[in-house]
Amino acid sequence: MQKLVEGIHQFQKDIFSSKQRLFEGLIEGQAPLALFITCADSRIDPSLLTQTEPGELFILRNAGNIIPPFGQMNGGEAATIEYAVSVLGVKDIVLCGHSHCGAMTGLLEPDNLDDLPAVRGWLSYAEATQRIIRENYEHLTEPAARLTATVEENVLVQLEHLRTHPSVAAALARKEVTLHGWVYKFETGRVFTFDPSAGQFQPVEGTAVPSSSPDLPAI
Ligand SMILES: [Zn+2]
User: Fold this and answer.
1) Which of 32, 62, 98, 134 is deepest in the core (most CB within 10 A)?
2) Are 32 and 84 spatial neighbours (Cβ–Cβ below 8 Å)?
3) How far is the CA of 31 from the centre of ligand 1 (A)?
């Protein structure tokens, strides 16, 4: 806890003072660029990853970046999504899974959840992910590859759940919101985004590559 308290002192002394106008401006309200949905895992820092400032990301986090389909659970997820889309008018929703996800490992090894009834219940909203892996990925026997596939498939499953939320469905119909499926590999810093036309996750590359060098290889 000491580290956290010392962090507050450092924040107030160094960070807040250097960005005081930004922080004071936040009192006017918020107009975030995106709703960012990701796992509660401590190894993910959405603002650091996207280099965004306070006020720019509306963040929803839980174990496994899971979104219960609308109507199955009137919880914080539904309320957060509804507020972000209907009130804040976010134009983009990013649903970001990640490498080495403990929740996804739990999906693959449900026997380890015997003493975690709340986790087990929560993971029932990823039942489709589990079934997709079980029925379609028999050829993947290597645990790391199996986990990666689970993380990716779960992002796609949860995006489908996201579409069941009326505020999202209506905004999609008006073409006022775009959904993005990401996987963040924290050990390399790389982010992969689902490309519907390719049917697979592709690396997100910076757009700042000079146009005169179109043949630069992917880093
Ligand atoms: Zn996770």
Assistant:
1) 98
2) yes
3) 27
